[in-house]
Write the structure tokens for this entry.
Amino acid sequence: MRPRHPCIGSAHPQLDHIIIRVPSSFIQNPPPWLKAAFTIAPGGRHGDGKTENRLIVFADGTYLELVAFTSAQAEQGHFWGGKGYGIIDYALTLEAGAEAYEHLRTRWELLDLPQGWKPGPLQYGSRTRPDGVKIEWRVAFPDKSARGRAPFWCFDVTPREKRVPTDSALTEHPCGAKGVAGLILFRETTQYQDLENLLNAMIPQVNKDRPDNNTWDLETPHKVDSKVPCALSLMPPKGSYVEGALKRRGLVARLTLFTDGREEETGRQSLQEAIEGDELLIGFVSP
């Protein structure tokens, strides 16, 4: 097993967070199966009032954002509207910050790719926590048609610790999860090459142990002692559910978390739950 990506500089992308859409009832009262596996931190309501969230934060500084629309009307025309439940998007960041992103974006603009796949200029975002604290950031998105396929980018204006808590009481979980080991995106053949080219430009690889050309090692905001890399992978669709879900929602993804080995004691190898006709699958792997 290859180690986590070696630190090659502050301009190498980090995984920031993964968006999981859930019903609005999950925000106020998370289901027992979710609480049995994870510690769920408070979130808040986004500045536009259309979405609210709760967080599952990890020791490596990444997190899962459980996001729900505040009303049926709020979903209309929203870039996450109509995407179903489960993993719907993912965000990257840079230790070097927003200025480094703007520099890199000028290079990405020269890529021979469909224009909508490339991330746009940074724009303001915010949410207010339940304790009244306002959190601010800047984000850059690809076009709506590419959301969830191509990553978006997120950079803090207020201190990151306000957005992503680091208290061990919130980063320790019943399932033993310590961070993200892998996110697999299943992609249609017609879009495979474009996305591969985009990720090659955004996430340059220097790891000699890279397993294949469809896997990109990422850094994480906090360094952790783990032999499990944080990786983003592309795979062709497999199985009738994946193929059908791709046609319905444009994205199917599988998440793997690395743990402290507790799953060997509990026998838990994965978490697979149906959410109103959609599916959430999270695997666990120990170092």
